[in-house]
Structures are given as C-alpha cells and as structure tokens.
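Tip: read the tokens left to right.
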C-alpha cells in the first residue's frame, strides 16, 4: 500500500542519511551495495530534512555561436554547462575508503536538478555526458554540453555593424549562479575569440523569482551581448558598391556631345543590378524592417538612375538645335548664359561670308564698271548665284550660332547638375558613415 511504501522510504532514508557509505578493504571508494541504496532513491530529492532546500548552482561558457537566423529570429549557440548540487546521501570517509575523495557515477542513477531554459525552441541534439563527479562530502558536479536553439529579438537595422543582445533564462525550484557573471564572460571570451562571424562583447545577468500562482521558481537571466565582425560584408558589399558609384561619378567627365554617355550609364546600372542580385543572399531579411545597408543600396541605385536622367536632359539640350532656327528662350539666356561671353563664330564660315560680300559688292553693283565694260547677262547670273550663296552662308552661320548657344547651355547645365550630384552623394555618404560610426562607438 501507499502507507507501507511511505514508511519504507522513511526508514530507508533515515538509515542511509544517518550512516555514511561503507567501504571494503582493498577497494578505493564506497561499495556498490551501499550506493545501490542511494540509486534506489533517485526519484526523491537527496535531503535528510525535506524542508531544507537543495540549491543548484549553474554556470556556463559560451563556446561557439553556430548561427543567427534573422528571418525566424533564432540564435543557435553551443554552451559548456556546469551544474553543482549537494546530495546528502553520498557521503563517505576517505580514510576508510583507501583515501578516495572523488568518484564518478552514472548520472541516470542519481537525482539531478530540473533546469529549464525558457527561450528553448528546439530539441537538444548535443552529445550527452553520462557521468557526474561526486565528492566525499556529497557535492556533485555535472559537466554537460548544450546546443541551445533559442528565440532572440534580433535588431538588424545597423547591419553589418549590429550588436545583438539575447536572453538565456535558466529556471528551477532553487537555482543560483556558480560563478560571477564577470568570470563567465571572461571564460566565454577566451574560448569564443577564434570563432567565425560573431564575437562576444559581454555576459550580464541577474537572479529573480518567477511566480506562477502559488508556485515560485528561481530563475537566472543571462544577457549575452554579441557583435558581428563586419569585415566580410565591408569587403564583399560596401567596397564594390563604392567602386561602382565612383565610376558613375567619373562618367560625367566623358564629353556629352561626342560620346554616348547614356549607354555607358545604362550598362553601369545593369551591372549594379546584377551585383545586388548576386549579393542578395548575404543580406539579412526580417518581416519587421530593412537593414540600413539595404536602404544604402537602394539609394545608390536611385542615384545612378538620377545620373542617367541628367544625361538624358543634357543630350536633349545639346541636340535641341536640330530644329531650324529655334532660338534659345530669353529666360535661358538670363539664367544660364548671363555670365558667358558672346559666342564666337567659326573661322571658315566667317571668311566665306566676307568673301561673298566682297564679290557681291564688286560684281553686282550696277554703277561699278568692270574694266570699262558694262555688266553682261552672265555677270548678272553670277551675282544671283553669289546672292544665293550669301543667303546660304548666312543660314549656316545662324545655325552655327544657335548650335553653339545650345551647346553652351548644355555644358553649363551639365556642370551645375554634376556639382549638385556630387553634393548629394557627399551628404549621403557622410550621413551613412556617421550613423555607422555612432553605432560602432556605442557597441
């Protein structure tokens, strides 16, 4: 019956607790028969007086950061977990046991504290440690490996210069830290310094009591602060993007009237788009927001499109004189050409026009005698041809002047828009660099 089992347990526990484990001559450590009585009490907390709490001390060393999944907000780490507690049944006299002060026992045969990690979101697939170390005073140390897959609120806005602060909450009925948080942080930094993408900044923590109704749980909350090493992303993302932007800026020095600058810029935009598609897997993504580096790439692409639009505008201005005798508007003259000297005319056109005028004066003036001979009909026809030639040269001169005016308008606008584009890019770069510098200094 239940009463008989309870009485048997009470008698058994009293006989065990008030008598130490026995040893036999020639054996280093307690006998198996004396420990078997302790093994049979595994379901019960190892305390002589059940009103006395069994305190479990816990510490861990962060050995590796296995992965960070920004989309699912999960942090995978590998911990070396160490537990301490006192078993009042496992006590012996070393002098009677051939000087043995510590033995190892299977953990499956002993009572162990119930340690719960509240952020755990997956099964522990790490290798189990089957043995514990037991001191002759009854103090037990259990070293185990723990692959902890935990939920963590990951902030990726400052990627790749982000710092993550994840929480590990260990709970039990009676638990306290075995080492100070500073010691745990120092041990973790010593083992984690050779690990890949992440480096440990600090481990902080506090102990508190969590209450569920009438039940109270002791919990230890650890804040593990880790920082991403940004060198990989700076080399693979930021530097190539900066080079492409530099090429886009230098393309403004191509002569817009003799080189197809628009085709060059379109090819550059296409190359930048392919670059973003290739590098897309390196960028983190969450449903909550977009990292600033993604905004940086989008703005860079937008600036390239603006640069292409500027080239289209300048090309249109330079070819605006293709319509005959289209004058430059007055407001353009005032705004754009106010400080530009009068345009020069081509030497060839000017000389030809002067020659035509001279011939016209000499040959086509009826009152001007030519070697004392009156003007003949052939001379009149020549004068007509010269008049047509002068009209044609005048038209060419006017077109040349208009073309030169529109070219000057185009070059002035190109100079102005290029300077505005440089100021825009400089301001944008300073904002991005200052923001990242602030985050780096704060971390």
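Filled-in amino acids:
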């Amino acid at each position: 019956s239940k009463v008989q089992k309870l009485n048997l347990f009470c008698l058994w526990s009293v006989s065990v607790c008030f008598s130490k484990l026995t040893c036999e001559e020639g054996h280093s450590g307690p006998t198996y028969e004396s420990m078997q009585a302790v093994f049979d009490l595994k379901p019960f907390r190892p305390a002589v007086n059940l009103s006395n709490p069994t305190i479990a001390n816990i510490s861990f060393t962060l050995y590796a950061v296995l992965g960070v999944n920004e989309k699912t907000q999960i942090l995978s780490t590998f911990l070396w977990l160490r537990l301490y507690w006192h078993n009042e049944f496992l006590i012996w006299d070393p002098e009677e046991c051939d000087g043995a002060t510590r033995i190892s026992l299977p953990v499956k045969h002993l009572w162990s504290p119930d340690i719960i990690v509240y952020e755990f979101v997956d099964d522990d697939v790490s290798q189990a440690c089957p043995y514990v170390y037991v001191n002759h005073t009854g103090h037990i140390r259990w070293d185990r490996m723990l692959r902890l897959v935990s939920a963590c609120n990951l902030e990726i806005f400052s990627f790749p210069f982000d710092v993550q602060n994840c929480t590990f909450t260990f709970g039990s009925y009676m638990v306290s830290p075995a080492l100070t948080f500073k010691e745990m942080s120092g041990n973790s930094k010593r083992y984690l310094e050779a690990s890949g993408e992440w480096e440990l900044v600090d481990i902080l923590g506090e102990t508190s009591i969590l209450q569920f109704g009438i039940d109270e749980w002791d919990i230890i909350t650890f804040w593990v602060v880790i920082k991403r090493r940004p060198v990989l992303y700076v080399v693979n993302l930021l530097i190539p993007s900066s080079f492409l932007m530099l090429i886009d800026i230098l393309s403004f020095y191509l002569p817009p009237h003799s080189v197809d600058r628009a085709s060059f810029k379109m090819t550059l935009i296409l190359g930048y788009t392919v670059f973003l598609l290739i590098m897309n897997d390196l960028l983190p993504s969450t449903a909550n927001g977009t990292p600033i580096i993604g905004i940086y790439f989008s703005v860079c692409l937008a600036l390239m499109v603006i640069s292409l639009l500027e080239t289209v505008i300048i090309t249109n201005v330079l070819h605006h004189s293709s319509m005959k005798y289209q004058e430059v508007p007055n407001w353009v003259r005032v705004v754009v050409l106010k400080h530009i000297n009068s345009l020069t005319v081509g030497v060839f056109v000017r000389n030809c026009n002067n020659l035509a005028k001279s011939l016209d004066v000499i040959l086509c003036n009826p009152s001007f005698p030519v070697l004392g001979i009156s003007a003949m009909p052939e001379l009149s026809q020549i004068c007509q041809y010269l008049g047509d030639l002068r009209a044609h040269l005048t038209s060419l001169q006017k077109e040349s002047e208009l073309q030169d005016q529109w070219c000057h308008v185009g070059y002035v606008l190109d100079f102005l828009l290029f300077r505005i584009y440089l100021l825009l890019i400089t301001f944008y770069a300073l904002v991005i660099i200052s923001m990242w510098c602030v985050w780096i200094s704060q971390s």
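The chain has three domains: 2-229, 233-318, 320-431. The radius of gyration is 45 Å.
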